[in-house]
Description:
two-stranded antiparallel sheet, elongated
Amino acid sequence: MKCIRxxxxxxxxxxxLKEGITIKxxxxxxxxxxxxxxxRKDSYKHSYIKxx
Length: 52
């Protein structure tokens, strides 16, 4: 999963320039995240290691 955001100058971060964050999640974690987004669960908490 790649997370990008808009910079202060109005342009989006570009993963091809190594901007943004890459998050690796397993299928079980993805399932839990989707359950929260679909309001089936109240919350989900997990810590992750930031890859470079």
